[in-house]
Amino acid sequence: MKRTAMCLTAGCLFLAATMFSGCGQPGNRGGLDAGEPLPAVTAAGWVNGEPPDLKGKVVVVDAWATWCGPCRQAAPEMVRLHEKFAGDDVVFIGLTQEGEESVPAIESFVESAGITWPNGYGAIETLTALDVTYIPAVWVVDRNGKIVWNFESSGTMENAIADAVKQ
Prior knowledge:
The structure is a single chain. Helices cover 37% and strands 16% of the residues. It is an alpha/beta fold. The protein starts with a helix and ends with a helix. It has a single domain, classed as Glutaredoxin (3-Layer(aba) Sandwich). It is globular, with a radius of gyration of 16 Å. The protein has helices spanning 2-20, 69-84, 103-113, 124-129, 157-166, and strands spanning 45-47, 58-63, 90-95, 119-121, 137-141, 147-150.
């Protein structure tokens, strides 16, 4: 039993290390491209409540972690965009692979950054489906559930959200 627990722990640590070893690294960072459907958004638990039904809404998905410096630096811009598009039926969702043991750190970060939207922890299935290899990583999804912009797209996230809202 002890050996099984050690193997599971080692496997989870290896998965987390390979998924997020490149925090803020330049170059091809993976991730689903424009035109791909948003996979199901699931998490082991949520901070700031669960996300609403996403059907027919513009969605901004932000993959991040408490230990990622570039993720922390991006938070004020995400808060600004959340406030700007608050009345436009735009849903922001944060996702991290960090588990339940990190909930106090997650809660502390989202509170100090002024993040008020749902943030899922233990979201490994969704992050894997999004093909996340580096963080921060962000996707803008249109009302039809298709990705219209990601962190490697040309143009700005703000323009992508505005364009998706107009559709």
